[in-house]
Amino acid sequence: MSLNDILIVSEDLSTGTWLLDARLLFRKIDVRIQGTRSPMWRNGRYEDQLGFTVLTEQLQTVECPVMVKVGYEEKRIIFQAQHLVPEKTTEELLPPSIRPQTRPRSIASAVGTRVIIIGPDLSGLLNYVGEYAVVADCKWPLEHGQACTYIASTGPQWGACVYFNVNSLCRSITDNGRPIQWPGPGQWSIV
Q1: Cα–Cα distance, 147 to 164 (Å, whole number)
Q2: What is the mean pLDDT of residues 139-152?
């Protein structure tokens, strides 16, 4: 993967086009809200907050509305896809009265963290987009921002060891592995 390819992936992440990929449908996606400081977007009230979403229909443009459950209380707020950036840290959703015990770090170094693949592997292949994976310990040193993962989605690729740049990963944690309920055409149970 060239530097130019990495820059293109990074641009996709900041403009919301990464969410237009149909392979992300019915997957839990942890996001951070950004670019909402104007009066049109509640004067930045939710700027830089964490939340999560599950896409139940394919988005056609970055202006499409996306429901996000924001913060610890999971308040349901609608944002345009262009305001949703993939979460790449271990920052926790905690009640305002509780201070975090540890500082957030990159998901690339957070062994055991579940992620969803949103971009190419280090070879430049897009075969794994939409698959869940778990960040794994690597026996040899990786470059900064790279991660070793094991594919965790069921199917023929399950258990494959694949390497990614952190820009190709998005956190996708669940509450102790329990499914989440998501409104859509019926109630979806997502793992």
Answers
A1: 5
A2: 91
